[in-house]
């Protein structure tokens, strides 16, 4: 089975291929399909948006498609930016500006109240049918300044308390083991590998 990874983001593509390994006979991504649509992420949950994207990409490519929707939920901001994480500071999806806005909104917030979590929902669709879905989370806290040169998105300000480092400070393999996306992908792989297992609702 050749599966299309529903993103052109090279960071996500590398993570997904690294974690799922040889689960599929081969992998393609949106860089292999010029002109692929950018479906409106109109859902109110990560799960809804992941399915919207997977259905659109499967329909466009004629192949099974895997898509994720992920983001950051900050308790002091009432769960924001949530499903709007990528566009928190504007439609251009600028990661640096997103972090700047996050730190501005949290200015003055005490350490104990800077708790947050990354959430990732993943859907695999084939021929209009939801084959499997999964969800992963990772709890942490938002720092007052960036740390680390790796990762992407909000990784430089997301501290994982268990290891005392941000996602941007972790080697890729360790991040995979701890991250929201790693957890969701492992759950998805288990669902696909279990015949007759129904998708999570």
Description:
The chain starts with a strand and ends in an 8-residue tail after the last helix. It has 201 residues and is of the alpha/beta class. The chain has a seven-stranded mixed beta sheet. α1 (10-20) crosses α5 (180-193). Helix content is 29%, strand content 24%. The protein has five helices and seven strands; from the N terminus they run βαβαβαββββαα. The protein has helices at residues 10-20, 46-61, 95-105, 172-178, 180-193, and strands at residues 2-5, 26-29, 65-74, 115-126, 129-142, 158-160, 165-166. It has one domain: Maf protein. Mean pLDDT is 92; it is low at 197-201.
Structure classification: alpha/beta
Number of distinct helices: 5
Radius of gyration: 17 Å
Order of helices and strands: EHEHEHEEEEHH
CATH topology: Maf protein
Q: Beta-strand percentage? A: 15-25%
Q: Summarize model confidence as the mean pLDDT.
A: 92
Residue windows where pLDDT falls under 50 for at least 5 positions: 197-201
| Molecular shape | globular
Oligomer: single chain
> What is the straight-line distance between the termini?
24 Å
CATH class, named Alpha Beta
- Amount of helix: 25-40%
CATH architecture: Alpha-Beta Complex
Strand order of the largest sheet: 2-1-3-4-5-6-7
Q: Summarize the biggest pleated sheet.
A: 7 strands, mixed
Total individual domains? 1
What is the number of beta strands?
Answer: 7
Descriptive terms for the model:
201 residues, single chain, 29% helix, alpha/beta, Maf protein
């Amino acid at each position: 089975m050749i599966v299309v990874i529903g993103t052109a983001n090279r960071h996500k593509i590398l993570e997904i291929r690294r974690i799922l390994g040889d689960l599929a006979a081969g992998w393609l991504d949106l860089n292999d399909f010029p002109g692929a649509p950018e479906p409106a992420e109109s859902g109110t949950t990560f799960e809804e948006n992941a399915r919207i994207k997977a259905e659109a990409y499967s329909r466009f490519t004629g192949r099974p498609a895997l898509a994720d929707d992920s983001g950051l939920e900050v308790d002091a901001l009432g769960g924001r930016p949530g499903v709007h994480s990528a566009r928190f500071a504007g439609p251009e999806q600028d990661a640096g500006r997103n972090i700047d806005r996050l730190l501005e909104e949290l200015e003055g917030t005490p350490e104990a109240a800077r708790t947050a979590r990354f959430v990732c929902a993943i859907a695999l669709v084939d021929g209009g049918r939801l084959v499997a879905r999964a969800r992963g989370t990772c709890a942490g806290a938002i720092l007052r300044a960036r740390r680390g040169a790796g990762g992407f998105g909000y990784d430089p300000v997301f501290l994982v308390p268990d290891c005392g480092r941000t996602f941007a400070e972790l080697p890729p393999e360790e991040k995979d083991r701890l991250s929201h996306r790693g957890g969701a992908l492992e759950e998805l792989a288990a669902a696909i590998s279990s015949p007759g297992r129904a998708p999570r609702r």
